[in-house]
Description:
Distance between the termini: 117 Å
Helix content: 40-55%
Strand order of the largest sheet: 3-2-1-4-8
Structural class: alpha+beta
CATH class of the domain at 36-204: Alpha Beta
Largest sheet: 5 strands, mixed
Radius of gyration: 54 Å
Amino acid sequence: MAVSDxxxxxxxxxxxxxxxxxxxxxxxxxxxxxxxxxxxRRLLSRRxxxxxxxxxxxxxxxxxAQGTELVVVGELDPRDPALLxxxxxxxxxxxRKLVLRLAEHEVLKRRxxxxxxxxxxxxxxxxxxxxxxxxxxxxxxYYDFRVIEDxxxxxxxxxxxxxxxxEQVQHWLRLVRDTGAQVEQVTWEEAWPKANLxxxxxxxxxxxxxxxxxxxxxxxxxxxxxxxxxAPIWQKKQIRDERLAQIAELKxxxxxxxxVRNALEQARAGSVAVLQRKWEQPRIIxxxxxxTERLPDDTWVQTMDYRDxxxxxxxxSTQATSLINLLDQAPGITEVSFxxxxxxxxxxxxxxxxxxxxxxxPEES
Length: 365
């Protein structure tokens, strides 16, 4: 019957369950554990051993919890600290934590609703609203809560709140603390999984061993998984590195070829530029021949200067003003103009002129 109940619970969709996911997982675990033989349950429950202190009036009964089973290990009487010390010290090294479990009637439980906007700060909001949610102030109680469900309309969520008076718990906390131990969880009968009325700041900070079996198994699984995933990645990395080395070698060769090519191109461009510059420069001999043919016989050229493509001519002529038209009609001669006014030479009938012009080699037909 337990096996069929377990499979029926496993088939329950999470979205239709009436308890949070953590509770559902705990119920699955407890149900599956109940399906195992007693020997197997005891073997697995050794990993979750802890002491449970259950107050009964002025004394308390101490149980050793092994999974879902509780085994009586003794009774505690506050009037006999030696008995309490012996009960806690004898089992302290074997147990992961101490749990104080209250009776059902010692815990007040309520179901309230809050806006979903306060979900991230729900603990503080409940502390502020404690006098409205219960007959007590927040400093008078220990409390815990869980979200039961989100309501479909109105943007609200339903909360289950459980609380107990501090004074009825602090006596046992102080008694256990005097023995050198410390209670890590305050719960109650029929509490939801992981419920803990003890505030987080009053819980002991317990570290886990670096070489626990669970961690070693998890580390082994992670190493094997990483090795399985890393093998093809490592092979691809090796192939990529080889290809990158080949590409780098080819790149060096290509750069050398490009350098030689650029050097040849620069040499060719330089020689061509020299030839082009030489070709574009006017031949002065051609200009002298053109001036000889164009200028009248009564014209003398005294100086001719050439600089940056501009030619300046100084001389004397009996008809200096007509020289502009004569030179302007010559091929290759442009921008003919007087650089200074024409001056009459006294007693000679001639005029002194200063003409500038530009000359370039005429296009050959």
